[in-house]
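As a representative case, we now present a protein record of this kind.
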Amino acid sequence: MTDPEPAPTPSTIELLERLTDDTKRLVRDEIELAKAEMTTKAKATGIGAGLFGAAGILALFGLGATIATAIIALSLAVDAWLAALIVTVVIFVAAGVAALVGKKRISEGAPPMPERTVESVKQDINTVKGAGHDG
């Protein structure tokens, strides 16, 4: 039985073609990773902004209820304005909760930098630099 022939050493041109193909694939993969990361952050920021909008609308309703409370307090007995005041407090509490949740969601999306992708690219560069110094 004879030993199989060793695989021929690739030529410089073949190695350069492989390097070019690998580099293209790496760049495409990094771009896809950046897209995925940015999409996730944009969704979190969008939800937070929507909750801030809800907080603004609830605060507007609270202002309307406060105005209604003042009108009722001036024209009717205590029972009616007290009820309106309770509703006003509840609406403002809901606005505060929505604002806090919205702030949290927006801070989850910030900064809008694809941090994992940047770190991955740095590792790729260090790997390539290290491969060039091995020989």
Summary: The mean pLDDT is 79. The helical segments are 12-75, 78-109, 115-133. The radius of gyration is 31 Å.
